[in-house]
Amino acid sequence: MISGFSMLVSRRSSDMLNTLKGSVRSRLFRGHKECRRIHQKQDICTSSRKNTVMPAWVIDQYGSNDVLRFNKNTMFPVIKYPNEVVVKVHAASLNPLDVNMRSGYGATSLKMTRDPLSMSDKNSEFPLVLGRDLSGVIMECGLDVGCFKPGDEVWAALPPWKQGTLSEFVLASGNEVSLKPKSLSHTEAASLPYVTLTAWAALVNTCGLNESNCRGKRILIYGASGGVGTAAIQLTKAWGAHVTAVCSQDASALVKDLGADHVIDYKLRTVEQQLKSSELFDLILDNVGGSTENWILNYLKPWSGAKYVTLVTPFLLNTDQLGIADGMLRTGMTVGSKVIKHLCKGVHYRWGFFSPSGPTLDIIAELVDAGKIRPVIDEVFPFSEVPKAFLKVQKGHARGKTVIRVVDAK
């Protein structure tokens, strides 16, 4: 798993330096349309609005909600490399990651990824724009962008080491962007990229699920009513799995409507007590973390290739507390010991990480337009009320996503 994460860090650095070469990754499914999204490094500026400004929500330091500041004079993003696009943001959405980043979570690792040679000042990440998700319209394209053009409606989830989406315009690379599902509005579309890509990374990239091998598998989703949970329910049901969802009673109707076959109310009795009468599972997706992994792996089918994957890992916390080298060492020791411990019991222990991918969003868009995945929105806020939206997410117990409407719907 550490080698996988190292590959992700390497990919982040390459993307930031724009040195990634070659074509996009191989097709995930036969017949999936590919297009040239990325190209070699080449300094070039094509923006017609260089040195102009735009409105954005920024932070100038890490802290509580009062560090959020509306800035009318944020610099307009400028295309410097031929694989980049400028997108006018119509809608964005928030994730728990944004609340954590506001408080400084992951600052050490993310700063290293932005500035791997430590050539910038100590606080070079500020002013920092938060937000990962967007839906909007392409305004400008780099000279080597072959599959998008100005006017295209797109959606994306940007990696956390980049400037975020709570601004009027954003800069993205072509491999992060995908054509928006035709069946969704911008407000609806903005709710899906980060959570669907995170669910995809855990279920597909980490655990090897796909349309051909998922049918009939028993899957437990712990923390099923949030953004990633609702996305995971829909993706696995689209592929024919039997899904058990763990959530509170007031979210039961929602997850059943999304297709969950069985719902466990964690407030009724302990989940462990309720699982004792259940069949064992082929896969468990843990969106909660904490002490859950101390007991929940007992409900996997032993010696059958069954997997547990958690999205709550200590990597960024370790590097924040110990620095990059010691943090990675502790992380490696932690995951290594857990993998070996559970292999001895006949089950697989894995960590999952969000991975930005335009080609994956292409596939998800097809599932959306086919009616197999739909947005689940908890609340929509205007751009002027971003701090209120952060407080909403900070309270937890979400029933879907919190969306920011950057451009008022006409």
From TrEMBL:
Which Pfam families does the record associate with it?
ADH_N, ADH_zinc_N_2
> What GO CC annotations are associated with the protein?
mitochondrial matrix; mitochondrial outer membrane
UniProt-listed PROSITE patterns: QOR_ZETA_CRYSTAL
Which GO MF term does the entry hold, naming one? nucleotide binding
The highest taxon in the source lineage is: Eukaryota
User: Catalyses which reaction?
Assistant: a 3-demethylubiquinone + NADPH + 2 H(+) = a 3-demethylubiquinol + NADP(+); 3-demethylubiquinone-10 + NADH + 2 H(+) = 3-demethylubiquinol-10 + NAD(+); 3-demethylubiquinone-10 + NADPH + 2 H(+) = 3-demethylubiquinol-10 + NADP(+); a 3-demethylubiquinone + NADH + 2 H(+) = a 3-demethylubiquinol + NAD(+)
The protein's matches in InterPro entries, at most eight in alphabetical order, are given as: ADH-like_N (IPR013154), ER (IPR020843), GroES-like_sf (IPR011032), NAD(P)-bd_dom_sf (IPR036291), Quin_OxRdtase/zeta-crystal_CS (IPR002364), RTN4IP1 (IPR037397), YIM1/Zinc_Alcohol_DH_Fams (IPR050700)
Q: Provide the GO biological process annotations.
A: nervous system development; ubiquinone biosynthetic process
Pathway as given in its UniProt record: Cofactor biosynthesis; ubiquinone biosynthesis
Using the UniProt record, give the first listed, main subcellular location. mitochondrion
The record's keywords, sorted A to Z, are: Membrane, Mitochondrion, Mitochondrion outer membrane, NADP, Neurogenesis, Nucleotide-binding, Oxidoreductase, Transit peptide, Ubiquinone biosynthesis
What sequence ranges are listed for the domain Enoyl reductase (ER)?
63-404
Task: Tell me where it resides.
Answer: Mitochondrion matrix; Mitochondrion outer membrane
Q: Which family does it belong to?
A: Belongs to the zinc-containing alcohol dehydrogenase family. Quinone oxidoreductase subfamily.
Q: PANTHER family this protein is in? A: ALCOHOL DEHYDROGENASE RELATED, RETICULON-4-INTERACTING PROTEIN 1, MITOCHONDRIAL
Q: What is this protein called?
A: NAD(P)H oxidoreductase RTN4IP1, mitochondrial
Q: Which organism is it from?
A: Pleurodeles waltl
